[in-house]
Structure formats: structure tokens, C-alpha cells
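Batch manifest, entry 17 of 40.
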Amino acid sequence: SKHRVEIHIPQKGDKKQVCNLIKDNAELFTKDQEKKYEKDSEVLFTLARITGLEVVPERIEAIDVSNYGDECITAGIVCFENAKPCKSGYRSYNIKTVEGQDDYSSMCEAIKRRAAHRDTDPLPDLLLLDGGRGHVNTVRSALLSQGIDIPILGMVKDEYHKTRTLTDG
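Output type: C-alpha cells
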């Protein structure tokens, strides 16, 4: 059904002041949001430059394995989209196929299980591992065996190499 709508714009008095205050607050909020976006974008550009990525990563996931004895091994994945936490992308995996405290195999199991849902849950532009060169090489091989080639960065300095670990192992 059709209804007639009338909009009244106050020209003076308290109602005009309230409208002006609302407009000013909206402008300040917009400027603040633009500054935050620019800062986040700058951080992502810097990350891409430092790590040699060809594309600025919009979606970043990080994985860590925790061992509570030999029988309780879990892997957690956190997710960030455009430099903001994306809690709907957080995952936790109880490791089922690994005997003992094998960090490499545990991480591979979690990554393979995560990758199995790539049709409904997009893969990250950058994968961060709580590990060094060995972790990167192992996880990279596991993903490549599934036809997945994404940048991987180890976040632990290898004592032997004394260098940052980056995707190409």
C-alpha cells in the first residue's frame, strides 16, 4: 500500500541544534573509521612488503598446536580479515591420528582438516605457523599434496639459520 511520507527539517531552535549535533557526530565517526581503515591497510601493506608477498593479505590465519601430555593434543586456528579478528573463522581441532607429541604431524592433520572445508570456508591469503623452517616445509608439503599453494610464514626464528622463515622453505 502507498503511504504519504513527510519529512520536516527544523530551521531553528532546539530541534535544529539536535540535528546539527547528530550530523557533526556522524562526520566525526566517519573520519575516525577512515583513519582506522587507513592504519589497518598500512599495516597489511607493510606486512606484504616485509614478507615479499605479491598480494596484500586480506585473510590471515595462524595455527598453534598444544600438547597436554601424549593423549590430549589440540590445534587452534585464529583468523583475521582486513586486520580485524574474524571469530567466525576461529577453529579448534582435537588431533586424532598422531601418537605422542609430534608437532609437525599434529599441525599437518589440523591443516588438512581445515583445507577440507575450503569450498565453504575460504582459505587464507597468508598462513602463519607457530614454528620455524621445519614446520613451514612440512605444512607446505601437506598443502601442496592437496593442490593448495598459499604463502606460509613461520613465526619462530630458527636458531640454526638465524633468519626469518618464509613460504618457499
